[in-house]
Each structure stands twice: as C-alpha cells, then as structure tokens.
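User: Please predict the structure of the protein below. I'd like the answer in structure-token form so I can feed it into my own downstream comparison script.

Assistant: Understood. Taking the following sequence of 79 residues as input:
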Amino acid sequence: MNYLKSLCFYFLEVVGALCNLLCSFFGAYPSLDLGVSFLVYSEGSRIRKEKSSRQTLRATKEVEAENLKSKAKEIGKEL
C-alpha cells in the first residue's frame, strides 16, 4: 500500500471516529467505517483490473494452444 493510500485511510478513520463520537453524544450510533470502506473499494478495483487482465491473458493462451494443437494434428496426418 502506498503512502497516499495509507494517508487517506487514516484520515478517513479519524473522520469516521469523530462522526461516531459526535453522534453518540446525541444517542445515535451509526458505526461509520469510512477508512475500511475506502480500502475495500480501492483494493476491489485493483483486484477487478488484475482479474480482467488475467482473463485476457488466459484467452490468448487458449487460442495459442488451439493453434498449436491444430498444427500438431496436421503434422501427424502428414507422417
């Protein structure tokens, strides 16, 4: 995790804690987790990008494998 993301996380945690504290004075308990929500969102988008790139790589490897398989069959028929 880079420095800016850590800084945003801790800032949002402090803001969420202050909101929870202020609301508790009035008898409301919202239990805000702004920092955790930020991390889940940011890491979720990173995981989705990685997953899509892996799927693209897998699809290209499958096409390459099919091409090699068909070439092997052609060579086998010639022998």
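That's the full token string. The chain has one domain: 3-78.
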